[in-house]
Structure formats: structure tokens, C-alpha cells
């Protein structure tokens, strides 16, 4: 049986891993839409390779290049934020949501409204609009499959179990490249050092998020929406080897864990084939070669991100969307060389300390909170 597939963010790290997986089983998939922000030539080459129906760039100024690269083919070229939503709404059986940041929110919602299966990597959408998105999933009968490795692990460990029996859900965190750095060293951490993750090869934004531990903070909020056991049952353990991707402890004392190589093709494959399994070319797990697994409590003095995220979840309303927006601004500023590494969490804390907008109740209101929080974070960064 052939299934249709759309990849939102096809040129990124998750998008490439997804395409790599379906390269191995071309007869099983028909590609509907592939999207990117700009990279028109790269997107066009992928659309041609996979025989996609359409290719879409979010940035409309790149549409002319895309059209040019696709001339002579029957692939439809589109551009602009609305076109991303049209592509997402084209009704693929499976949509891989792999845009980075809140920019992915409207397209994810458009896919949810089709009631199809969404493999969700784009965690910022759940952080900013978790309640609204989860309600829409319910209303439209969509299937949300968590692709983030921790959440995919938890999803697998919860399968066939009763939520009422869960005692703890433990998210593991690698601790990032600066796990053992002092506060003084962290203040001087460079862009290049922060972009070198010890275990995972990922896009720039999530790599910086891993270094600050905002990635784990965002994942805490993501887990809170996906697995309704309550915030007080979610905890974080630092596990530098990234072999155990997360765990669920039940009330009888049993802990189920999912293990695997640090390769996103494993959780993506789990989503693509769910509830079945598919072959991947991933390296098998060689536990004797790994030798030992370590676990530590997170240090929220040096890495305040997880504390800020927990507080934002507790505050509820607009706070998680403000946290996400401020973090996106801060990461961009750090990558542009405008602020120091430790200023990332400081900027998020300063933005959250300002009066919060009212709780958003629709997608449009979340996007308005996001825009307002970005403006505020930018003003804190560069006072007029
Ligand atoms: P990436 O930067 O490698 O790729 C992002 C993709 O989104 C690209 O195709 C890019 O063109 C597109 N894009 C970026 N900005 C856009 C915009 N404004 N409008 C439309 N398209 C836009 O990112 P990634 O590492 O693949 O991560 C994607 C998402 O998956 C993020 O939310 C990340 O947190 C999550 N995630 C990634 C990994 C990983 O291993 N890379 C693991 C878990 C979760
Ligand atoms: Mg993760």
C-alpha cells in the first residue's frame, strides 16, 4: 500500500533524515509536498528526486528561484506563509512537521485540521500553542505522533499502558557541550563551541537550545501537553551518553525505557511505520562498547532554562508562548554575535518578568502573543 507524505521543513536536519528513510522504500511512499524557508535549488532538487506534487518556499522572495529550478517539470511551485498552509492542508496521509520555531505553527494547524497523521518534531508549536493544538487534534480526529526522541521514547513506553498507573515520566538530557563548564566559562562560550553537540547532529537553533538546556525546558512543556500526567510527575535527568531516550516509571515499581543510537532516523522511522516497524540503516546499539551509562541531577544554577520553563508552564496562559518567542529572539541574537551565551537565559527571564499578555484562546491570538513577545525581547535587547 502506498501512503502519501508531506514534509514541512524538508531541507533541514529532520527533513533530510526523513527523506533518507523513504529513499530506502520508494515504492511505499508518494510525496505530496516538500517545503523549505528559502534554499530553492536544494528544495527543487529534492522535489525532482522524489517526484513531489508541489514544492513550497516560506520566503516568497525565493519563489522566482524555485520556479526557475523547477521549470520543465510538472511540480507546482508556491511561495509565502499562506502557501505553506496550503501545502500542509493538501491532505497527505502523513505530515512530518519539521519546520523550526513558531513559524511552523500555522502549517501544523492546517495539517491537524485535515485529521491526518502528523509526525511532530517542531516542538515550539506545542510550547506556544499546546492547549489549542491538542484540542484541534481531538476535534479533527488527527493522530499526533511525537518525533522528538524523548517524546517518541515515552510514547513507545506508554503504549498499551494505563496513564493512571504512571508514577513518573523521566526525560533524559545529554547536558550539551557545556555540561561540566563553570559559570565563568559559560559566560565566555562562543558560537562555535555551542554549535558542537557531543552526541547529536542537528539544526543550529536546537543545537544552541541543547547547550543552554532550553531544549529540555521546551521538551518539558511539550511532554506536559502530550502526556497528561501533570507537571509534578515530569522530571529531568542528565544522561550524557544519550542512550536511554526517556523512561516511564509505573506504580508497581517497573520502569520502561527506550534505548537506541543517537540517530533521529530511529524515532522518525517509528512514526513513519507506526504502529508497525520499518528497516533503517542505523547503527545497532552496542552496549558493551558503550560500557557505562551515567545519570545526574540537572544544575539549574548554571542552566536556569529548565526552571524558567517549568515556571512558565505553571503560570500557564501566555507564559509558555512568551518563553518560546523570547528564546527564539535570544538564540538568533547569540548566533548573530550580538549577545553572550549566558544572556540567552537572562533575556528570556527578563521578558517573562514583564506583564504577560492575556491567555491566548485561538491560533491567531497565539501568533499575536508570539509577535508581541518578540518585540518586547528585542526592545530589552536594544533599548531605544
Ligand atoms: P533545521 O534548521 O535543520 O531545519 C529547519 C527546516 O525548516 C528547514 O527546512 C528550513 O528551511 C525550514 N524553515 C526554517 N525557518 C522557516 C520559516 N520561517 N518558514 C518556513 N520554513 C522554515 O532544523 P531541525 O534541526 O531539522 O529541527 C526542526 C524541528 O525539529 C525543530 O523544532 C527542532 O526543535 C525539532 N527537532 C529536531 C531534532 C534534530 O535532531 N534535528 C531533534 C528533535 C526535534
Ligand atoms: Mg529531543
Could you describe the 3D structure shown?
The structure is a single chain. This protein is of the alpha/beta class and 384 residues long. The protein has 2 domains: 3-146, Rossmann fold (3-Layer(aba) Sandwich); 151-300, no CATH class. It has helices at residues 13-23, 40-49, 63-70, 81-88, 105-112, 123-140, 149-158, 183-187, 191-194, 204-212, 214-226, 265-273, 287-290, 305-315, 319-335, 343-353, 363-381, and strands at 3-8, 29-36, 54-57, 76-79, 94-97, 117-120, 143-146, 166-173, 234-238, 244-250, 255-259. Helix 2 (40-49) runs parallel beside helix 3. The radius of gyration is 20 Å and the shape is globular. The model has no long low-confidence stretch (mean pLDDT 97). The chain binds nicotinamide-adenine-dinucleotide and magnesium ion. Nicotinamide-adenine-dinucleotide binds at residues 9-15, 36-37, 39, 58, 84, 98-100, 103, 121-124, 148, 200, 202-203, 205-206, 264. The site of magnesium ion has 4 residues, from helix 7. It is an enzyme of class 1 (oxidoreductase). Pathway: Isoprenoid biosynthesis; isopentenyl diphosphate biosynthesis via DXP pathway; isopentenyl diphosphate from 1-deoxy-D-xylulose 5-phosphate: step 1/6.
Amino acid at each position: 500500500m502506498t501512503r502519501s507524505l508531506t514534509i514541512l521543513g524538508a531541507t533541514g536536519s529532520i527533513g533530510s533524515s526523513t527523506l533518507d528513510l523513504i529513499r530506502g522504500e520508494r515504492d511505499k511512499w508518494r510525496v505530496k509536498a516538500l517545503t523549505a524557508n528559502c534554499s530553492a535549488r536544494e528544495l527543487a532538487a529534492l522535489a525532482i528526486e522524489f517526484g513531489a506534487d508541489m514544492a513550497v518556499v516560506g520566503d516568497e522572495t525565493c519563489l522566482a528561484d524555485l520556479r526557475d529550478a523547477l521549470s520543465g517539470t510538472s511540480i507546482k511551485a508556491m511561495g509565502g506563509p499562506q502557501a505553506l498552509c496550503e501545502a500542509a492542508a493538501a491532505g497527505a496521509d502523513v505530515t512530518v512537521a519539521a519546520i523550526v520555531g513558531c513559524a511552523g505553527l500555522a502549517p501544523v494547524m492546517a495539517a491537524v485540521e485535515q485529521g491526518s497523521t502528523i509526525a511532530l518534531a517542531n516542538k515550539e508549536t506545542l510550547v506556544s500553542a499546546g492547549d489549542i493544538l491538542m484540542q484541534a487534534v481531538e476535534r479533527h480526529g488527527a493522530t499526533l505522533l511525537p518525533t522528538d526522541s524523548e517524546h517518541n521514547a515515552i510514547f513507545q513506553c506508554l503504549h498499551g499502558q494505563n496513564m493512571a498507573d504512571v508514577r513518573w515520566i523521566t526525560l533524559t538530557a545529554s547536558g550539551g557541550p557545556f555540561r561540566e563548564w563553570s559559570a565563568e566559562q559559560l559566560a565566555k562560550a562562543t558560537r562555535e563551541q555551542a554549535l558542537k553537540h557531543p552526541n547529536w547532529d542537528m539544526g543550529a537553533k536546537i543545537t544552541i537550545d541543547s547547550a543552554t538546556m532550553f531544549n529540555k525546558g521546551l521538551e518539558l512543556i511539550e511532554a506536559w501537553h502530550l502526556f497528561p500526567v501533570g507537571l509534578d510527575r515530569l522530571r529531568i535527568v542528565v544522561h550524557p551518553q544519550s542512550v536511554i531516550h526517556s523512561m516511564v516509571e509505573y506504580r508497581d515499581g517497573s520502569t520502561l525505557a527506550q534505548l537506541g543510537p543517537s540517530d533521529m532516523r530511529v524515532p522518525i522511522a517509528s512514526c513513519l511505520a507506526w504502529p508497525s516497524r520499518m528497516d533503517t540503516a542505523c547503527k545497532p546499539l552496542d552496549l558493551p562498547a558503550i560500557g557505562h551509562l551515567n545519570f545526574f541531577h540537572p544544575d539549574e544554577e548554571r542552566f536556569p532554562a529548565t526552571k524558567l520553563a517549568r515556571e512558565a508552564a505553571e503560570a500557564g496562559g501566555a507564559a509558555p508562548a512568551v518563553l518560546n518567542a523570547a528564546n527564539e529572539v535570544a538564540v538568533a541574537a547569540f548566533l548573530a554575535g550580538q549577545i553572550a551565551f549566558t544572556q540567552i537565559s537572562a533575556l528570556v527571564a527578563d521578558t517573562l518578568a514583564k506583564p504577560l499578555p492575556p491567555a491566548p484562546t485561538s491560533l491567531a491570538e497565539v501568533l499575536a502573543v508570539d509577535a508581541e513577545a518578540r518585540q518586547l525581547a528585542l526592545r530589552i535587547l536594544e533599548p531605544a
